[in-house]
Queue: 2 jobs
Job 1
Amino acid sequence: MADLDGNISAKDYGLDYPQQTAGFPVKGAGQLDFGMRHRLARIFGPDGRTAMLAFDHGYFQGPTSGLERIDLNVVPLAPYVDALMATRGVIRSVVPASCDNALVLRASAGASILKELSNERLAMTIEDAVRIDAAGVAVQVFIGGEYETQSIQNLTTMIDAGLAAGIPVLGVTAVGKDMVRDARYFGLATRIIAELGAQMVKTYFVETDFEQVTAGCPVPIIMAGGKKLPVLDALTMAYRAIQGGAAGVDMGRNIFQRSNPTAMVQAVRGVVHDELDPAQALQLYRDLSGGAED
Ligand code: R5P
């Protein structure tokens, strides 16, 4: 039988120190359940920001340039980011289970580049996200697109499932070919996604009034990367998004299509977490890459 004497004499209730309620650094998440917040805290750092690496492109366009061999080209970048955004197929087949990144799983799919892209359905269950130990799931939303209603229903269905399981949903704004990419459109799309219950929203940066997009969205906005830009332009875009109120970036091609992705991912991380300005981040890229410019 255990000796209980020590327990009796060791009681210290810290009467001079009222219990503190921990704050939570993620926008709009202060009233969520513990499990949801615990997962969000894996995606976002204590500064409330995230450097996320997106390499889910294969789900609709096959072996994208830079992603031909994810084991060789992308897995080595994982230590430099907070979160990995990928499909469950790649997570299970290629990403080491020993990695300690937050995993954000693509949960909607349904059309290839050969067809109408907005025609998506949910492509995985929340139970499988639990099995994978996902920190979040991502659902694409096509506001104004041909299958707008269907994509919104995908989102709300996954939000309900995510609330039951404690898994946050990243709503991803997808822009159709004919849409104008401006603050008005992204303000509309991001606000709709947040109002419907997504705990995070991913959207593109716009040059004008981006801060109105972030201000009007009650949950964190994560900037999507888009096509490969010159190094300084990509770092400037990330910097301006953060300055404009984004809580981080989810970049893919602007990292893994570089001549030195390892240098670029560290430069992007510096912008997100270390307050590097574009010139400082560019210098870091050059220093780490041996002077690469592309
Ligand atoms: C798009 O459907 C996917 O969610 C990509 O992960 C996203 O576009 C980010 O990748 P990139 O920075 O290459 O645009």
Note: The mean pLDDT is 95.
Job 2
Amino acid sequence: MATIKPIEGRSVHQIQSGQVIVDLQSVCKELVENSIDAGATSIEVRFKNNGLDAIEVQDNGAGISPEDYDTIALKHYTSKLSTYDDLSSLQTFGFRGEALSSLCALSKFHIVTARASDGPKGTKLEFEQSGQLRGTSVVAAKQGTTVVVESLFYNLPVRRKELEKTIKREYNKVLALLNAYACVSTGVKFSVSNQLPKGKKTIAFSTNSNPNTKENIANVFGAKTLVALIPLNLTFEMDPSNRPGATQSARNWSTQEDAGSRTVAIVGHISRPVVGEGRQTPDKQMFFVNSRPCTLPQVAKAFNEVYKSYNITQSPFIFADIKLDTNAYDVNVSPDKRTILLHDQTTLLESLKEALIELFEGHDQSVPHAQLQ
Ligand code: ADP
Ligand code: MG
């Protein structure tokens, strides 16, 4: 008798969903990214009981068309990508059509949405665990979309228990991630609040629709943060094929027809390495690739190493956005899209260190960094 059999569909869905939505941070990341992709200029994130009871993300983006209600939460249904080739020119955060379907499988989930043409009326969408639309009803709503995630992991007892045990730490991790989205998103007003069961609602932080990242940083971390910062504006040409021992991927990259793909720019803000100066500046470090927040441990290490050679007593504030051609990195590495693979990272790190030394050496330390006007 055959012992190898397919796993039943519902269980497969639950197993896969658990890889996309791994924790509180992934819920917020997916929902905020959807709001930005929908062109929102205002995003409000509301936590109830640190996110344990509910996470709500409300935006004023385009809203959802009635024609899409049936498929919006089905697995691999997306408005952002249709073939694998599109991935190399991706301009949106999302592309796999997995977030909403995973949230249906792992939480009590609903959406309220309204388009500009819908007037003051919106539609509430409710779903089955499978992502099938269960029903719709008319509700009062402003233009945009609100996604409500209640009782995250209620049907995965081990994960739910772990979430309850670690919720304070998880909540702080989420705030750090939301800080990064708020700082990098110019022209978008962010507001993040938390309602504890018996306490009052507290605003964790908020930004105005600032035209630049510097003002976003001032809103999020306080204006004093800016005192110790200098602009980061590094540009270098990379020709990985010329290096001895260059990897095959580096060679492939360097032979691409698009000559622009070899120019790398790193823009943002960093603490001046002057001992004692940045006491008011939190040692926050945020990294982005084309404005996509991500963890880049090797890049972080390179920044910190160079900084430490000038100032061993402090850790720098870093906001570094690496501007790369879209085919010079891969976001499709892990289901939660947190890991980004940079092609020929070694060459990039070497060039980065050289450029940073030049920046720190060349910077006239007696001139204070321009403050907000
Ligand atoms: P992906 O972002 O990879 O496309 P999701 O499951 O996150 O997958 O979302 C599925 C689709 O739902 C999106 O492609 C988009 O068309 C729509 N959508 C999700 N969130 C919003 C939102 N806040 N506003 C408008 N449309 C949205
Ligand atoms: Mg998405």
Note: The longest helix spans residues 157-184.
